[in-house]
């Protein structure tokens, strides 16, 4: 059997060079900060470790590689040293620099939702709308026909509720609607809505409460 001669060809690939500087502890802290800003920064990249600035001993080099492995960073080759040892990545030479890599910033975390409650001292007239998407709404007077109250939390009406009341608008199924005189045009909690035609007349003119139970809107008289 005639063996074919082996053929070797050169290949050039783009790689990202990590260039630690002394003191190594400070450089590792900076690396941790960069990874916190962009956790996927080094994922899927060919990584070269350039230690020319450190001039490390073999023990120091092995320690640095262990630190990188603990951060799930795998080095394909080492540049800038002649130190070689068993289990180390290969030594590379004649690397050419390229443009710096920008670290993408992680979008700022949204501001925490501030829950607030508002109180309307009087009544809400027809055509008026009271909206509080982050908390409860309390109306000391009436909610007239054609008026609307929308709350992220619960709604309390100490007079007659004749208009529209939508509670739990902030996806809060535990929100409730309370009123002293039950005559609403429309009620809503979370994503469930009922019109006056769906509610019947059993509670009309009475003190009542409205809540959700297992995805069903419940209505009951307040004792």
Backbone CA Rg:
34 Å
Number of helices: 3
Strand share of the residues? 25-35%
- Neighbour order of strands in the largest sheet: 5-7-9-11-14-15
**Alpha-beta content class:** alpha/beta
Helix content: 10-25%
Number of strands: 15
Round the mean pLDDT to the nearest integer and report it: 86
The biggest sheet, with number of strands, parallel, antiparallel or mixed sense and barrel status, is: 6 strands, mixed
Low-confidence stretches: none
N- and C-termini, Cα separation: 101 Å
- Give the ordered list of helices and strands: EHEHEEEEEEEEEEEHEE
Keywords: Cell cycle, Cell division, Septation
Subunit structure: Interacts with MinD and FtsZ.
Protein name: Probable septum site-determining protein MinC
Domain Septum formation inhibitor MinC C-terminal: 120-218
Brief synopsis:
It contains 3 helices and 15 strands. The chain has 223 residues and is α/β, with parallel strands linked by helices.
Key features?
28% strand; cell cycle; 223 residues
Question: Explain this structure to me?
Answer:
The chain is rod-shaped, with a radius of gyration of 34 Å. It starts with 15 loop residues before the first strand and ends with a strand. It is an alpha/beta fold. It has 3 helices and 15 strands.
SSE layout and pairing:
Layout (H helix, E strand, L loop, with lengths): L15 E3 L5 H14 L9 E4 L7 H13 L6 E3 L11 E2 L25 E3 L8 E4 L4 E3 L8 E4 L3 E7 L2 E4 L9 E6 L3 E4 L2 E4 H4 L8 E6 L2 E6 L2
Parallel strand pairs: 1-2, 2-3, 3-4, 5-7, 6-8, 7-9, 8-10, 9-11, 10-12
Antiparallel strand pairs: 11-14, 12-13, 14-15
Keywords: Cell cycle, Cell division, Septation
Protein name: Probable septum site-determining protein MinC
Subunit structure: Interacts with MinD and FtsZ.
